[in-house]
Amino acid sequence: MEKTEKELAFLHDLYINDEWTRRFTDLVDKHIDLRESDNLLYINAGTGHHVMAVCERFGEKTDIFATCANVDMLTIAQDKAAAVRSPVDFSTIRFEDDAFDAVLADATFVRPVEIEAFIENAVRVARTGGDVAVFLPSAGSFGEVFSLMWEAIFNEEISGQDETVQTLIESIPTTSKLESIAEKAGIVNINTEVAIEVFEYDNGKDFIESSLVTDFLLPAWMETLEDDEKEKVRQGLATLIDADEGTLPFRFSVKATLLSGEKG
Which domains does the chain have, with CATH numbers? Predict the structure, then answer.
């Protein structure tokens, strides 16, 4: 059964920051310096963990605003900010053009088809000369999972899905494609940083029952399948993982990518 937005917001706060988002924000913390920014907008701030950490580092000189994907995320983020007296201003509003010295945007769960529009929006709200940084997975991510998904779909003889996995693989943008999108959107002095992150699960059951996989990744990857087909593929993945790996852990890799530059 699919989770409600409220349930997903709770799971995001409980599991996703540590298991997923931190892999990307470590790149941000390493490569992005906001000391010269008077104000910052953090797009897709989740339930607020990283943006409040950014505020602790730069908040004395930088006014920090953050948008959340929905009201349920917003409620958790605002409650957390109130508990620690963080000055981050959380909202779900659409900000005006050319409003911020720096824009930081989490695109880690943004569908590949929506990446171009997402980057364009991040550029839109930045002032000319302002810093823009977006972090997300790039091409080469999830290869180990996609290979098993193709096998599971084939084994279950699910008709009309021959190109599903190939489409998934090809839809994730390469770094060069991301740089091209950024340039088209108006970013100059473009830079990309990539770190290979490895996710490990003891067995197939742990993999398909992890919140990251079953609640956040698989729903997007299997959206063209019928409900009964989704369950067959999930169970097929678990079986294949155990058959292929035996007693060894199952691992898949993600190319955590940070794209940054300035609004021209």
Answer: 5-263 (3.40.50.150)
